[in-house]
Specification:
By secondary structure, the chain is mainly α. It has 10 helices and 3 strands. It folds into 2 domains: 3-158, Ribonuclease III domain (Ribonuclease iii, N-terminal Endonuclease Domain, Chain A, Orthogonal Bundle), CATH 1.10.1520; 160-235, Double Stranded RNA Binding Domain (2-Layer Sandwich), CATH 3.30.160.20. 59% of the residues lie in helices and 8% in strands. Strands 1-2-3 form a 3-stranded antiparallel beta sheet. A hairpin with a 3-residue loop joins strand 2 (198-204) and strand 3. Helix 3 crosses helix 7 (115-133) and helix 8 (139-158) packs across helix 9. The longest helix has 22 residues, at 46-67. The N and C termini lie far apart (51 Å).
């Protein structure tokens, strides 16, 4: 690794708040975490991304258990899903401007639609690198991610329908005796990473329908459900989508 690359990676560690972890092993792992498969190098971020996925879920679980001990288990699961989501990872990668650190091959460089996916994958690999490079210690991961998780958690608990619309909508429809919501989802484009790639319409009996767009089927359905729940709250203010929040 040349000196210019080393300086850039050290700047990244300072931005994360982990400048004290400066060592040759960690820098090598961070370099690997930010090297895409398309670069054609013998080492790339695939294995560190695999590790980072597991580390992220464990660290997020510990965060929720420590900071929200009274949150119901179902709500813990829903919250964790947001704290480890690809969207959350991509947003964190964007804040860090990880694209400027990525080593990419020509094909990946030209695929602008996949930028969000690249950021999410690289962020997850970076988590794996920091965990591995600190002797399998979760503390640096918590030090880095906790402020970001606190902000996301506040948003989720303040507006749960935006993040957990499918569950809220299903509980309402069953309580009303309307059965399960019916989702019709179709692919509108084949561009990977396109925020409007999928369109989903959700129907609840004859009383409600709403639409949503997303990069994946799951995201489109979640957005359609969130729109439906928002419509319900406008029509029926008595619906309380925040009753799982800690008091």
């Amino acid at each position: 690794m040349d000196s210019t690359r080393t300086i850039k990676l050290l700047e990244l560690l300072r931005e994360i708040g982990l400048k004290e972890l400066n060592n040759a092993k960690l820098l090598s792992l961070v370099d690997e975490a930010l090297t895409h498969v398309s670069a054609g190098r013998s080492k790339n971020f695939e294995r560190l991304e695999f590790l980072g996925d597991a580390v992220l879920r464990l660290a997020a679980t510990e965060f929720i258990d420590h900071h929200y001990p009274d949150l119901p288990v179902g709500s813990c699961s829903n919250l964790r899903a947001q704290l480890v989501s690809d969207r959350w990872l991509a947003q964190l990668g964007e804040q860090l401007q990880l694209e400027s650190f990525l080593v990419l091959g020509p094909k990946a460089q030209g695929d602008k639609a996949a930028r969000a996916t690249l950021r999410a994958d690289a962020t997850e690999a970076l988590i794996g690198a920091i965990y591995n490079g600190s002797s399998n210690n979760l503390e640096p991961v918590h030090h880095w991610l906790t402020p970001h998780w606190q902000q996301t958690t506040a948003e989720v608990l303040a507006s749960p329908h935006r993040f957990n619309g499918k569950t809220i909508l299903q509980e309402w429809s069953q309580a009303e005796g309307l059965g399960l919501p019916d989702y019709t989802t179709r692919e509108q484009s084949s561009r990977h990473g396109d925020p409007e790639r999928f369109h989903s319409q959700v129907q609840v009996g004859t009383r409600l329908n709403a639409n949503g767009l997303g990069r994946s089927r799951k995201e489109a359905e979640q957005n359609a459900a969130a729109e439906a729940v928002q419509s319900l709250q406008d029509l029926e203010p008595a619906i309380d989508s925040s009753n799982d929040a800690p008091h």
